[in-house]
Amino acid sequence: MHSRAKSIHLKNTQMGFIKNILLTIYHRLRLFFCHYIPNHIIAHFPFYGIRHFYYKAVLGVKLGRGSSIHMGAFFYEWNLEIGVNTAINRKCHLDCRGGIKIGNNVSISPECAFITGSHDYNSRNFKYISGKIDIEDFVWIGSRATILPNVKIGKGAVVCAGAVVTKDVECYTVVGGVPAKVIGKRSDDLNYSCKFFLPFD
Predict the structure, then answer these.
(1) Which position among 9, 40, 44, 119 bears the catalytic label?
(2) The overall pTM is greater than 0.85
(3) Which of 62, 67, 89, 193 is 20 to 30 Å from the Cα of 75, by its Cα?
(4) Is residue 119 among the annotated active site residues?
(5) Domain CATH number, residue 105
(6) End-to-end CA distance of the chain
């Protein structure tokens, strides 16, 4: 009886070992195809069709008609939804762990950062936290602006270059600075498209 129990324990140990190996292989492959390839290879192909196909078909990004993701964009996870005729310019950083939703006719200038993941600095074990970012229609985000977790940017709002947005922005409001504060208002009579494709980008 003792021998049989020992045999079962040994078998369970071996199965656990094999399971751990398979899980490690799975996570490494996922990291390779969902992080390394899209960010270090696909993102630098000078053809929208190749990039957009990989983002949509392989990674599950919801990308609306007429929208473009330009070269050098860097993604962390792929919980991303983009409306129609929206442009995400060169070298933007999109941390999608908490979810990012971007509306229609949104212009996101080069090198912007959308950060949905963070840590509780008062937590003993540096607890991971995340929050969604929601960008409504006709928003314009200037170069090198940073949008932090749990932020909603209302329709037609403008975020000036270099701003750090830590809280919600009202519709048709212009914000700037660190942290971003209201510095103006925008007309609510907006009717344009941000559909933008360069010949090679």
Answers:
(1) 119
(2) yes
(3) 193
(4) yes
(5) 2.160.10.10
(6) 70
At residue 3, φ and ψ (nearest 5 deg) are: -65, -40
Q: Which two tokens stand for residue 22?
A: 């398979």
Give yes or no: residues 111 and 147 share one domain.
Answer: yes
Residue ranges making up the domain that contains 118: 47-185
Give, in order, the Cα–Cα distances in Å from 69 to each of 36, 66, 148: 17, 10, 20
The string of pLDDT tens digits covering residues 82-140 is 999 999 999 999 999 999 999 999 999 999 999 999 999 999 999 999 999 999 999 99
- The tokens 């048709």 sit on which residue? 172
User: For residue 9, what pLDDT band results from cuts at 50, 70 and 90?
Assistant: low
Q: Which residues pair with 108 in a beta bridge?
A: 88, 141
- The answer to whether residue 98 is domain-embedded is yes
Q: What are phi and psi of 148, to 5 degrees?
A: -100, 170
The residues near 33 (Cβ < 8 Å, ≥ 6 apart) are 58
- Distance between CA atoms of residues 45 and 147, nearest Å: 27
Cβ-based neighbours of 151, under 8 Å, separated by 6 or more: 131, 133, 134, 165, 166, 167, 168, 169
